[in-house]
Amino acid sequence: MSVTGTNPTNSATDVDVYGSIDITFSKEMDETTLTTANITLNNGKSCQTIDYDSTLKRARCMVYDGLRSDKLNDNTSYTLTISTDVKDTSGMALEAPYTLSFATTTQNNLSLLKTGQATSYVDYDDAWHATTGNLGEARSFSRENGIVTDATTGLMWQDNVVPSSATFEDANTTCQNLILGGYGEWRVPTLAELASITDKSAAGAIHTTFVNTVAAPYYSADTTASGEIWAIDFSNGKSLPVTSDAYYVRCVR
Fold it and tell me: What are phi and psi of 142, to 5 degrees?
């Protein structure tokens, strides 16, 4: 029994900090041996969960599990190690530990964006930049197959259905399992990413390219010091802390 492929590949240098790690085996695996104790990462990170697809003989290490603190670090080298305690369904183990080395890239850092806010309430807020120095980058959105793509940030946003309210845990699972327009690898957005689609000049405080929006708080992946979840209310575009109760999510990739 052996490892026949990985994603990312060995020595990859452009791995997304929010990405998962896929390991494909030559044999159908004993799922009970695919544990976080037997598949490990260095540099203080770990697989939050390991999912197994028996049809593809593929194990998926999910480092990012909804909260931003779980993601891989920018510009960091990692080694994933699979121990010889991993076995196939016949009981055969790896002959030797398998290692996969890769490095992450820099997370997309959002530039100063125009939000549509016309009145400045304090120096250096979004309207202050727009009215004082005409600063801020205009957004450019397009919509196809239920996906809104932001040409300015490069982010792709789910917009195929009017969402239902859910706990944060269920919302996070929805994003992780989403396949839309042929794309996977969706996740809960960071607060900065979610703020990038607000438009204070539009109804619902969201850019008009989005057509499926509820006027209510939407989860981000960021948390407060006390453990609450930062959200943005798309009735007014303001951020606020919420508990993991029953709010909404707009998945991003």
Answer: -135, 155
DSSP E strands, 38-165: 39-41, 49-53, 58-62, 77-82, 98-104, 141-144, 147-150, 156-158
CATH class (in words) of the domain with range 3-104: mainly beta
- Beta-strand pair 98-104/12-15: parallel
Looking at residue 113, its pLDDT comes to 52
Q: Are 79 and 42 in contact (CB under 8 A)?
A: yes
Burial of 219 (0-12, 13-18, 19+ CB in 10 A): buried
- Whether the model clears a pTM of 0.70, i.e. scores above it, the answer is no
Give the pairing type, strands 77-82 and 21-25: unpaired
Which one-letter amino acid corresponds to residue 22?
D
For the segment 159-182, what is each residue's pLDDT rounded down to a tens digit?
998 888 999 989 999 998 999 999
Residue extents of the structural domains in the chain = 3-104, 139-242
Give the Cα separation of 194 and 159 in Å (integer): 13
